[in-house]
Design brief:
With 505 residues, the protein is mainly alpha-helical. It has helices at 7-28, 34-40, 45-73, 75-94, 99-127, 131-150, 152-162, 166-186, 200-223, 228-250, 264-276, 280-294, 299-310, 312-315, 317-327, 329-351, 358-385, 392-429, 435-446, 458-492. The chain folds into three domains: 1-197, MFS general substrate transporter like domains (Growth Hormone, Chain: A), CATH 1.20.1250.20; 200-252; 262-505, Up-down Bundle (Growth Hormone, Chain: A). It is built from 20 helices and no strands.
Protein backbone atom coordinates (compact mmCIF):
# COMPACT_ATOMS: atom_id res chain seq x y z
CA UNK A 1 0.00 0.00 0.00
CA UNK A 2 1.14 3.62 -0.56
CA UNK A 3 3.56 5.06 2.00
CA UNK A 4 1.26 8.07 2.54
CA UNK A 5 -0.96 5.80 4.65
CA UNK A 6 -0.13 4.83 8.22
CA UNK A 7 0.52 1.16 8.96
CA UNK A 8 -2.93 0.82 10.53
CA UNK A 9 -4.50 2.66 7.61
CA UNK A 10 -2.89 0.24 5.16
CA UNK A 11 -4.31 -2.72 7.10
CA UNK A 12 -7.79 -1.16 7.15
CA UNK A 13 -7.61 -0.45 3.43
CA UNK A 14 -6.44 -4.02 2.77
CA UNK A 15 -9.46 -5.39 4.66
CA UNK A 16 -11.88 -3.16 2.77
CA UNK A 17 -10.28 -3.95 -0.59
CA UNK A 18 -10.57 -7.69 0.09
CA UNK A 19 -14.27 -7.15 0.81
CA UNK A 20 -14.85 -5.21 -2.40
CA UNK A 21 -12.86 -7.83 -4.36
CA UNK A 22 -15.23 -10.53 -3.13
CA UNK A 23 -18.30 -8.52 -4.09
CA UNK A 24 -17.00 -7.74 -7.58
CA UNK A 25 -15.90 -11.30 -8.30
CA UNK A 26 -19.27 -12.74 -7.35
CA UNK A 27 -20.92 -10.59 -10.01
CA UNK A 28 -18.51 -11.22 -12.88
CA UNK A 29 -16.96 -14.66 -12.29
CA UNK A 30 -20.18 -16.65 -11.86
CA UNK A 31 -21.52 -16.08 -15.44
CA UNK A 32 -18.57 -18.02 -16.87
CA UNK A 33 -19.55 -21.16 -14.91
CA UNK A 34 -23.26 -21.15 -15.89
CA UNK A 35 -22.74 -23.65 -18.74
CA UNK A 36 -20.86 -25.88 -16.28
CA UNK A 37 -23.71 -25.64 -13.75
CA UNK A 38 -26.12 -26.64 -16.50
CA UNK A 39 -24.16 -29.88 -16.98
CA UNK A 40 -23.14 -30.70 -13.41
CA UNK A 41 -26.29 -29.68 -11.51
CA UNK A 42 -28.69 -30.38 -14.40
CA UNK A 43 -30.00 -26.81 -14.31
CA UNK A 44 -32.43 -25.54 -16.91
CA UNK A 45 -32.28 -22.10 -18.50
CA UNK A 46 -34.62 -20.41 -16.00
CA UNK A 47 -32.66 -21.80 -13.07
CA UNK A 48 -29.43 -20.44 -14.55
CA UNK A 49 -31.10 -17.03 -14.71
CA UNK A 50 -32.08 -17.31 -11.05
CA UNK A 51 -28.53 -18.17 -10.03
CA UNK A 52 -27.68 -14.60 -11.05
CA UNK A 53 -30.98 -12.88 -10.29
CA UNK A 54 -31.24 -14.26 -6.76
CA UNK A 55 -27.96 -12.48 -5.98
CA UNK A 56 -28.88 -9.12 -7.54
CA UNK A 57 -32.40 -9.00 -6.07
CA UNK A 58 -31.04 -9.87 -2.62
CA UNK A 59 -28.44 -7.09 -2.87
CA UNK A 60 -31.27 -4.65 -3.59
CA UNK A 61 -33.30 -5.77 -0.56
CA UNK A 62 -30.61 -4.84 1.98
CA UNK A 63 -28.86 -1.82 0.45
CA UNK A 64 -30.78 0.88 2.28
CA UNK A 65 -31.47 -1.15 5.43
CA UNK A 66 -27.86 -1.97 6.21
CA UNK A 67 -26.79 1.65 6.05
CA UNK A 68 -29.26 2.53 8.80
CA UNK A 69 -28.32 -0.54 10.85
CA UNK A 70 -24.60 0.23 10.58
CA UNK A 71 -25.14 3.85 11.63
CA UNK A 72 -27.19 2.80 14.65
CA UNK A 73 -25.43 -0.36 15.92
CA UNK A 74 -21.88 0.25 14.75
CA UNK A 75 -20.25 0.19 11.33
CA UNK A 76 -17.44 -2.13 12.36
CA UNK A 77 -19.85 -4.56 13.99
CA UNK A 78 -22.11 -4.79 10.93
CA UNK A 79 -19.07 -4.95 8.64
CA UNK A 80 -17.70 -7.95 10.53
CA UNK A 81 -21.12 -9.66 10.50
CA UNK A 82 -21.43 -9.11 6.75
CA UNK A 83 -17.93 -10.51 6.07
CA UNK A 84 -18.69 -13.61 8.16
CA UNK A 85 -22.09 -14.03 6.49
CA UNK A 86 -20.54 -13.73 3.02
CA UNK A 87 -17.98 -16.39 3.87
CA UNK A 88 -20.60 -18.76 5.29
CA UNK A 89 -23.02 -18.33 2.37
CA UNK A 90 -20.15 -18.78 -0.10
CA UNK A 91 -19.39 -22.07 1.64
CA UNK A 92 -23.03 -23.14 1.23
CA UNK A 93 -22.90 -22.20 -2.47
CA UNK A 94 -19.73 -24.22 -2.96
CA UNK A 95 -21.14 -27.40 -1.43
CA UNK A 96 -24.67 -27.07 -2.88
CA UNK A 97 -25.82 -30.56 -3.95
CA UNK A 98 -28.43 -29.27 -6.41
CA UNK A 99 -29.43 -26.15 -8.28
CA UNK A 100 -32.32 -25.33 -5.93
CA UNK A 101 -30.00 -25.18 -2.94
CA UNK A 102 -27.55 -23.04 -4.93
CA UNK A 103 -30.26 -20.52 -5.83
CA UNK A 104 -31.33 -20.15 -2.19
CA UNK A 105 -27.70 -19.86 -1.12
CA UNK A 106 -27.09 -17.23 -3.79
CA UNK A 107 -29.96 -15.17 -2.39
CA UNK A 108 -28.43 -15.33 1.07
CA UNK A 109 -25.02 -14.55 -0.39
CA UNK A 110 -26.52 -11.53 -2.17
CA UNK A 111 -27.95 -10.21 1.09
CA UNK A 112 -24.57 -10.44 2.77
CA UNK A 113 -22.92 -9.01 -0.36
CA UNK A 114 -25.19 -5.97 -0.33
CA UNK A 115 -24.37 -5.45 3.36
CA UNK A 116 -20.68 -5.85 2.55
CA UNK A 117 -20.86 -3.19 -0.15
CA UNK A 118 -22.57 -0.58 2.02
CA UNK A 119 -20.37 -1.25 5.06
CA UNK A 120 -17.09 -1.00 3.19
CA UNK A 121 -18.14 2.40 1.85
CA UNK A 122 -19.13 3.51 5.38
CA UNK A 123 -15.84 2.25 6.85
CA UNK A 124 -13.76 4.00 4.19
CA UNK A 125 -15.67 7.26 4.67
CA UNK A 126 -15.07 7.22 8.44
CA UNK A 127 -11.49 5.93 8.53
CA UNK A 128 -10.02 8.16 5.80
CA UNK A 129 -11.06 11.78 6.21
CA UNK A 130 -7.77 13.53 5.50
CA UNK A 131 -7.72 14.76 1.89
CA UNK A 132 -4.55 12.95 0.77
CA UNK A 133 -5.30 9.69 2.57
CA UNK A 134 -8.91 9.79 1.40
CA UNK A 135 -7.89 10.15 -2.24
CA UNK A 136 -5.44 7.24 -1.94
CA UNK A 137 -7.94 5.01 -0.15
CA UNK A 138 -10.79 5.61 -2.58
CA UNK A 139 -8.42 5.28 -5.52
CA UNK A 140 -7.24 1.85 -4.40
CA UNK A 141 -10.80 0.80 -3.58
CA UNK A 142 -11.88 1.70 -7.11
CA UNK A 143 -8.95 -0.15 -8.67
CA UNK A 144 -9.59 -3.35 -6.70
CA UNK A 145 -13.34 -3.18 -7.32
CA UNK A 146 -12.60 -2.78 -11.02
CA UNK A 147 -10.22 -5.73 -11.00
CA UNK A 148 -12.89 -7.89 -9.39
CA UNK A 149 -15.45 -6.92 -12.04
CA UNK A 150 -13.06 -6.77 -14.99
CA UNK A 151 -11.03 -9.91 -14.45
CA UNK A 152 -13.80 -12.01 -12.90
CA UNK A 153 -14.55 -13.87 -16.16
CA UNK A 154 -10.99 -15.11 -16.67
CA UNK A 155 -10.62 -15.88 -12.95
CA UNK A 156 -13.84 -17.91 -13.00
CA UNK A 157 -12.86 -19.68 -16.21
CA UNK A 158 -9.39 -20.44 -14.87
CA UNK A 159 -10.75 -21.88 -11.62
CA UNK A 160 -13.14 -24.18 -13.51
CA UNK A 161 -10.34 -25.35 -15.82
CA UNK A 162 -7.87 -25.95 -12.99
CA UNK A 163 -10.18 -27.35 -10.36
CA UNK A 164 -13.96 -27.24 -9.98
CA UNK A 165 -16.84 -24.78 -10.26
CA UNK A 166 -17.19 -25.09 -6.48
CA UNK A 167 -14.00 -23.07 -5.94
CA UNK A 168 -15.52 -20.06 -7.68
CA UNK A 169 -17.50 -19.81 -4.43
CA UNK A 170 -15.20 -21.51 -1.93
CA UNK A 171 -12.31 -19.15 -2.64
CA UNK A 172 -14.35 -16.44 -0.90
CA UNK A 173 -14.29 -18.42 2.33
CA UNK A 174 -10.51 -17.99 2.47
CA UNK A 175 -10.68 -14.31 1.49
CA UNK A 176 -13.43 -13.69 4.06
CA UNK A 177 -11.35 -15.20 6.86
CA UNK A 178 -8.41 -12.93 6.01
CA UNK A 179 -10.64 -9.84 5.68
CA UNK A 180 -12.31 -10.65 9.01
CA UNK A 181 -9.00 -10.95 10.86
CA UNK A 182 -7.66 -7.72 9.38
CA UNK A 183 -10.89 -5.87 10.22
CA UNK A 184 -11.03 -7.11 13.83
CA UNK A 185 -7.49 -5.91 14.51
CA UNK A 186 -7.60 -2.55 12.74
CA UNK A 187 -11.03 -1.03 11.98
CA UNK A 188 -12.36 1.49 14.51
CA UNK A 189 -15.93 1.30 15.69
CA UNK A 190 -18.15 4.23 14.75
CA UNK A 191 -21.83 5.11 15.06
CA UNK A 192 -24.18 7.93 14.19
CA UNK A 193 -25.94 9.10 17.36
CA UNK A 194 -28.68 10.63 15.23
CA UNK A 195 -29.16 7.62 12.96
CA UNK A 196 -32.62 7.33 11.47
CA UNK A 197 -34.94 4.44 12.16
CA UNK A 198 -35.12 1.56 9.73
CA UNK A 199 -37.59 2.16 6.88
CA UNK A 200 -39.16 -1.31 7.03
CA UNK A 201 -42.19 -0.40 4.92
CA UNK A 202 -40.04 1.00 2.12
CA UNK A 203 -37.65 -1.95 2.14
CA UNK A 204 -40.39 -4.61 2.04
CA UNK A 205 -42.55 -2.95 -0.63
CA UNK A 206 -39.66 -2.20 -3.01
CA UNK A 207 -38.19 -5.69 -2.62
CA UNK A 208 -41.57 -7.33 -3.28
CA UNK A 209 -42.18 -5.16 -6.35
CA UNK A 210 -38.81 -6.04 -7.90
CA UNK A 211 -39.04 -9.75 -7.08
CA UNK A 212 -42.56 -10.11 -8.51
CA UNK A 213 -41.60 -8.29 -11.72
CA UNK A 214 -38.51 -10.46 -12.26
CA UNK A 215 -40.51 -13.60 -11.43
CA UNK A 216 -43.28 -12.60 -13.86
CA UNK A 217 -40.81 -12.09 -16.73
CA UNK A 218 -38.79 -15.23 -16.01
CA UNK A 219 -41.62 -17.68 -15.27
CA UNK A 220 -44.34 -16.03 -17.37
CA UNK A 221 -44.03 -18.39 -20.36
CA UNK A 222 -44.79 -21.34 -18.03
CA UNK A 223 -47.93 -20.09 -16.28
CA UNK A 224 -49.02 -17.66 -19.03
CA UNK A 225 -48.52 -13.92 -19.02
CA UNK A 226 -52.28 -13.28 -19.20
CA UNK A 227 -53.33 -16.16 -16.94
CA UNK A 228 -54.90 -15.55 -13.56
CA UNK A 229 -51.61 -16.36 -11.82
CA UNK A 230 -49.63 -14.14 -14.18
CA UNK A 231 -51.94 -11.17 -13.78
CA UNK A 232 -51.97 -11.64 -10.00
CA UNK A 233 -48.15 -11.58 -9.84
CA UNK A 234 -47.72 -8.50 -12.04
CA UNK A 235 -50.61 -6.85 -10.19
CA UNK A 236 -48.89 -7.51 -6.88
CA UNK A 237 -45.72 -5.97 -8.28
CA UNK A 238 -47.60 -2.82 -9.32
CA UNK A 239 -49.45 -2.54 -6.01
CA UNK A 240 -46.21 -3.03 -4.08
CA UNK A 241 -44.50 -0.28 -6.05
CA UNK A 242 -47.39 2.13 -5.45
CA UNK A 243 -47.24 1.22 -1.75
CA UNK A 244 -43.50 1.91 -1.79
CA UNK A 245 -44.03 5.38 -3.24
CA UNK A 246 -46.73 6.14 -0.67
CA UNK A 247 -44.59 4.82 2.19
CA UNK A 248 -41.69 7.06 1.17
CA UNK A 249 -43.95 10.09 0.76
CA UNK A 250 -45.42 9.80 4.26
CA UNK A 251 -42.22 8.77 6.07
CA UNK A 252 -40.50 11.45 8.13
CA UNK A 253 -37.07 10.00 7.20
CA UNK A 254 -37.56 8.13 3.90
CA UNK A 255 -34.77 6.06 2.41
CA UNK A 256 -35.83 7.47 -0.98
CA UNK A 257 -36.39 11.23 -0.93
CA UNK A 258 -38.22 11.71 -4.24
CA UNK A 259 -37.63 15.47 -4.13
CA UNK A 260 -34.07 14.89 -5.39
CA UNK A 261 -35.50 13.83 -8.76
CA UNK A 262 -36.39 17.49 -9.24
CA UNK A 263 -32.63 18.16 -9.56
CA UNK A 264 -31.94 17.69 -13.26
CA UNK A 265 -28.30 16.55 -12.99
CA UNK A 266 -29.34 13.92 -10.45
CA UNK A 267 -32.24 12.64 -12.58
CA UNK A 268 -30.13 12.60 -15.75
CA UNK A 269 -27.42 10.63 -13.97
CA UNK A 270 -29.90 8.12 -12.51
CA UNK A 271 -31.22 7.47 -16.03
CA UNK A 272 -27.61 6.80 -17.02
CA UNK A 273 -27.16 4.50 -14.04
CA UNK A 274 -30.23 2.49 -15.05
CA UNK A 275 -29.20 2.48 -18.72
CA UNK A 276 -25.86 0.79 -18.03
CA UNK A 277 -27.72 -1.95 -16.20
CA UNK A 278 -30.31 -2.23 -18.95
CA UNK A 279 -27.63 -3.12 -21.47
CA UNK A 280 -23.98 -3.67 -20.51
CA UNK A 281 -24.10 -5.49 -17.17
CA UNK A 282 -27.06 -7.86 -17.72
CA UNK A 283 -25.58 -8.90 -21.07
CA UNK A 284 -22.43 -9.91 -19.23
CA UNK A 285 -24.52 -12.74 -17.77
CA UNK A 286 -25.30 -14.10 -21.24
CA UNK A 287 -22.16 -13.26 -23.20
CA UNK A 288 -20.20 -16.20 -21.67
CA UNK A 289 -22.98 -18.53 -22.87
CA UNK A 290 -22.56 -17.20 -26.42
CA UNK A 291 -18.79 -17.58 -26.20
CA UNK A 292 -18.96 -21.15 -24.93
CA UNK A 293 -22.11 -22.53 -26.56
CA UNK A 294 -22.35 -20.38 -29.68
CA UNK A 295 -18.65 -20.12 -30.52
CA UNK A 296 -17.57 -23.41 -28.94
CA UNK A 297 -14.85 -22.04 -26.64
CA UNK A 298 -13.79 -23.64 -23.38
CA UNK A 299 -14.17 -21.73 -20.11
CA UNK A 300 -10.64 -20.29 -20.15
CA UNK A 301 -10.82 -19.11 -23.78
CA UNK A 302 -14.26 -17.64 -23.15
CA UNK A 303 -12.92 -15.83 -20.08
CA UNK A 304 -10.00 -14.42 -22.05
CA UNK A 305 -12.36 -13.29 -24.82
CA UNK A 306 -14.54 -11.51 -22.27
CA UNK A 307 -11.60 -9.36 -21.17
CA UNK A 308 -12.24 -7.26 -24.28
CA UNK A 309 -15.67 -6.49 -22.80
CA UNK A 310 -14.53 -5.72 -19.25
CA UNK A 311 -10.97 -4.34 -19.31
CA UNK A 312 -11.92 -1.06 -21.08
CA UNK A 313 -14.15 -0.30 -18.09
CA UNK A 314 -10.96 -0.19 -15.95
CA UNK A 315 -8.86 1.83 -18.39
CA UNK A 316 -11.35 4.54 -19.33
CA UNK A 317 -12.41 6.15 -15.98
CA UNK A 318 -9.35 8.47 -15.65
CA UNK A 319 -9.97 9.62 -19.22
CA UNK A 320 -13.67 10.07 -18.40
CA UNK A 321 -12.72 12.26 -15.41
CA UNK A 322 -10.76 14.60 -17.69
CA UNK A 323 -13.58 14.66 -20.22
CA UNK A 324 -16.04 15.58 -17.46
CA UNK A 325 -13.87 18.51 -16.42
CA UNK A 326 -13.81 19.81 -19.97
CA UNK A 327 -17.26 18.98 -21.33
CA UNK A 328 -19.40 18.35 -18.21
CA UNK A 329 -21.45 15.24 -17.31
CA UNK A 330 -24.55 16.49 -19.16
CA UNK A 331 -22.71 15.59 -22.38
CA UNK A 332 -20.27 12.88 -21.29
CA UNK A 333 -22.87 10.56 -19.73
CA UNK A 334 -25.19 10.49 -22.80
CA UNK A 335 -22.16 10.08 -25.11
CA UNK A 336 -20.91 7.16 -23.03
CA UNK A 337 -24.34 5.51 -23.17
CA UNK A 338 -24.54 6.07 -26.92
CA UNK A 339 -21.13 4.43 -27.32
CA UNK A 340 -22.37 1.37 -25.43
CA UNK A 341 -25.20 1.14 -27.97
CA UNK A 342 -22.74 1.32 -30.86
CA UNK A 343 -20.86 -1.56 -29.26
CA UNK A 344 -24.01 -3.67 -29.08
CA UNK A 345 -24.77 -3.16 -32.76
CA UNK A 346 -21.19 -4.04 -33.66
CA UNK A 347 -21.50 -7.21 -31.55
CA UNK A 348 -24.73 -8.04 -33.39
CA UNK A 349 -22.96 -7.73 -36.74
CA UNK A 350 -20.06 -9.78 -35.40
CA UNK A 351 -22.34 -12.59 -34.20
CA UNK A 352 -24.06 -12.71 -37.62
CA UNK A 353 -20.78 -13.09 -39.54
CA UNK A 354 -20.34 -16.09 -41.81
CA UNK A 355 -17.75 -17.49 -39.41
CA UNK A 356 -18.29 -15.77 -36.05
CA UNK A 357 -15.42 -15.81 -33.57
CA UNK A 358 -13.88 -13.70 -30.84
CA UNK A 359 -12.31 -11.58 -33.59
CA UNK A 360 -15.69 -10.69 -35.12
CA UNK A 361 -17.00 -9.89 -31.63
CA UNK A 362 -13.90 -7.90 -30.62
CA UNK A 363 -14.83 -4.45 -32.05
CA UNK A 364 -18.25 -4.51 -30.39
CA UNK A 365 -16.96 -5.77 -27.05
CA UNK A 366 -14.24 -3.11 -26.92
CA UNK A 367 -16.61 -0.32 -27.95
CA UNK A 368 -19.26 -1.27 -25.38
CA UNK A 369 -16.60 -1.45 -22.66
CA UNK A 370 -15.22 1.94 -23.63
CA UNK A 371 -18.73 3.43 -23.45
CA UNK A 372 -19.30 1.97 -19.99
CA UNK A 373 -15.93 3.29 -18.84
CA UNK A 374 -16.80 6.78 -20.09
CA UNK A 375 -20.22 6.92 -18.41
CA UNK A 376 -19.74 5.05 -15.14
CA UNK A 377 -17.58 7.41 -13.07
CA UNK A 378 -19.40 10.62 -14.13
CA UNK A 379 -22.70 8.95 -13.21
CA UNK A 380 -21.51 8.20 -9.68
CA UNK A 381 -19.93 11.62 -9.22
CA UNK A 382 -23.01 13.42 -10.50
CA UNK A 383 -25.55 11.58 -8.35
CA UNK A 384 -23.65 12.43 -5.16
CA UNK A 385 -22.28 15.81 -6.26
CA UNK A 386 -25.60 17.32 -7.37
CA UNK A 387 -27.19 17.12 -3.91
CA UNK A 388 -26.21 18.65 -0.58
CA UNK A 389 -23.55 16.79 1.41
CA UNK A 390 -26.02 15.67 4.08
CA UNK A 391 -28.00 13.81 1.41
CA UNK A 392 -25.03 12.30 -0.44
CA UNK A 393 -25.47 8.93 1.30
CA UNK A 394 -29.13 8.78 0.36
CA UNK A 395 -28.29 9.79 -3.23
CA UNK A 396 -25.66 7.06 -3.40
CA UNK A 397 -28.22 4.57 -2.11
CA UNK A 398 -30.71 5.55 -4.82
CA UNK A 399 -27.97 5.23 -7.45
CA UNK A 400 -26.99 1.74 -6.27
CA UNK A 401 -30.64 0.66 -5.96
CA UNK A 402 -31.36 1.89 -9.50
CA UNK A 403 -28.44 -0.18 -10.75
CA UNK A 404 -29.46 -3.36 -8.93
CA UNK A 405 -33.18 -3.08 -9.79
CA UNK A 406 -32.40 -2.47 -13.47
CA UNK A 407 -29.93 -5.35 -13.47
CA UNK A 408 -32.37 -7.80 -11.88
CA UNK A 409 -35.20 -6.88 -14.25
CA UNK A 410 -33.06 -6.93 -17.38
CA UNK A 411 -31.43 -10.27 -16.59
CA UNK A 412 -34.99 -11.60 -16.83
CA UNK A 413 -35.88 -9.52 -19.91
CA UNK A 414 -32.76 -10.53 -21.85
CA UNK A 415 -33.35 -14.18 -21.00
CA UNK A 416 -36.91 -13.95 -22.28
CA UNK A 417 -35.78 -12.24 -25.51
CA UNK A 418 -33.00 -14.81 -26.04
CA UNK A 419 -35.35 -17.78 -25.78
CA UNK A 420 -37.98 -16.05 -27.92
CA UNK A 421 -35.39 -15.37 -30.64
CA UNK A 422 -34.21 -18.99 -30.58
CA UNK A 423 -37.83 -20.20 -30.77
CA UNK A 424 -38.57 -17.88 -33.71
CA UNK A 425 -35.74 -19.40 -35.75
CA UNK A 426 -36.80 -22.94 -34.85
CA UNK A 427 -40.32 -22.17 -36.05
CA UNK A 428 -38.98 -21.14 -39.46
CA UNK A 429 -36.42 -23.95 -39.75
CA UNK A 430 -38.68 -26.73 -38.42
CA UNK A 431 -42.31 -25.76 -39.13
CA UNK A 432 -43.42 -29.30 -38.22
CA UNK A 433 -42.12 -28.93 -34.66
CA UNK A 434 -44.78 -29.41 -31.99
CA UNK A 435 -45.74 -25.94 -30.72
CA UNK A 436 -46.07 -27.11 -27.12
CA UNK A 437 -42.46 -28.29 -27.15
CA UNK A 438 -41.07 -25.26 -28.96
CA UNK A 439 -40.21 -23.07 -25.99
CA UNK A 440 -38.77 -25.89 -23.83
CA UNK A 441 -36.52 -26.83 -26.76
CA UNK A 442 -35.52 -23.20 -27.20
CA UNK A 443 -34.64 -22.93 -23.51
CA UNK A 444 -32.47 -26.04 -23.71
CA UNK A 445 -30.63 -24.66 -26.74
CA UNK A 446 -30.14 -21.28 -25.03
CA UNK A 447 -28.62 -23.06 -22.02
CA UNK A 448 -26.33 -25.16 -24.23
CA UNK A 449 -28.15 -28.44 -23.61
CA UNK A 450 -28.38 -31.14 -26.25
CA UNK A 451 -31.77 -31.44 -27.95
CA UNK A 452 -32.73 -34.50 -29.96
CA UNK A 453 -35.39 -33.62 -32.54
CA UNK A 454 -35.79 -35.09 -36.05
CA UNK A 455 -34.32 -32.66 -38.57
CA UNK A 456 -32.60 -30.52 -35.93
CA UNK A 457 -29.02 -30.24 -37.14
CA UNK A 458 -26.04 -28.59 -35.50
CA UNK A 459 -26.26 -25.83 -38.11
CA UNK A 460 -29.88 -25.07 -37.21
CA UNK A 461 -29.03 -25.03 -33.50
CA UNK A 462 -26.17 -22.57 -34.06
CA UNK A 463 -28.28 -20.33 -36.30
CA UNK A 464 -31.12 -20.37 -33.78
CA UNK A 465 -28.74 -19.41 -30.99
CA UNK A 466 -27.21 -16.66 -33.13
CA UNK A 467 -30.69 -15.35 -33.91
CA UNK A 468 -31.62 -15.25 -30.23
CA UNK A 469 -28.43 -13.46 -29.24
CA UNK A 470 -28.91 -11.08 -32.15
CA UNK A 471 -32.28 -10.12 -30.71
CA UNK A 472 -30.72 -9.57 -27.28
CA UNK A 473 -27.97 -7.37 -28.72
CA UNK A 474 -30.57 -5.40 -30.68
CA UNK A 475 -32.53 -4.87 -27.46
CA UNK A 476 -29.42 -3.77 -25.60
CA UNK A 477 -28.40 -1.34 -28.35
CA UNK A 478 -31.81 0.25 -28.92
CA UNK A 479 -32.60 0.34 -25.19
CA UNK A 480 -29.42 2.16 -24.20
CA UNK A 481 -29.78 4.61 -27.11
CA UNK A 482 -33.30 5.51 -25.99
CA UNK A 483 -32.12 6.04 -22.43
CA UNK A 484 -29.14 8.04 -23.68
CA UNK A 485 -31.55 10.40 -25.43
CA UNK A 486 -33.74 10.68 -22.33
CA UNK A 487 -30.70 11.39 -20.16
CA UNK A 488 -29.51 14.08 -22.56
CA UNK A 489 -32.91 15.76 -22.64
CA UNK A 490 -33.24 15.76 -18.85
CA UNK A 491 -29.72 17.10 -18.37
CA UNK A 492 -30.03 19.88 -20.91
CA UNK A 493 -33.59 21.11 -20.35
CA UNK A 494 -33.03 24.34 -18.44
CA UNK A 495 -29.25 23.82 -18.60
CA UNK A 496 -28.60 27.38 -17.43
CA UNK A 497 -29.88 26.44 -13.99
CA UNK A 498 -27.55 23.49 -13.60
CA UNK A 499 -24.71 23.57 -11.12
CA UNK A 500 -21.26 22.44 -12.26
CA UNK A 501 -20.42 19.04 -10.76
CA UNK A 502 -16.77 18.48 -10.03
CA UNK A 503 -15.42 14.94 -10.43
CA UNK A 504 -14.14 13.36 -7.24
CA UNK A 505 -10.50 13.31 -6.38
Amino acid sequence: MPSALTCRGAVILSAVCLACLMFGLEISSVPTILPTLEDVLHADFKQLQWVMNAYTIAVTTVLMAVGALADRYGRKRIFLISIAAFGITSQICGVAPNIQTLIVARFLQGMSGGALLICQIAVLSFEFQDGRERAIAWGWWGVIFGIGLGFGPIIGGGIVAASSWKWVFLIHVLIAVLAFVLSVTSVHESKDPQASRLDVAGILTLSLAVFCLAFYITQGPDFGFTSTAGLAIIGLSAVSFVAFVIAEKVSARPMFDFSVFGIRPFSGAIIGSSAMNTSFWPFMIYLPIWMQVGLGYDSVTAGLSLLAYTVPTLVMPPFAERLSLRYQPNLIIPVGLFTIGVGFFLMKFGSAAAHPSWLTMLPGCLTAGVGLGIANTPVTNTTTGSVSSDRAGMASGIDMSARMVSLAVNIAVMGFILVTGVAAHLTEALPSLDGTQLRPFAEKIAAGDNVSVPGLTASIVHDALANGFGWVMLYGGIGVWIMSAISFLIFNAGVSRQVKVQPSE
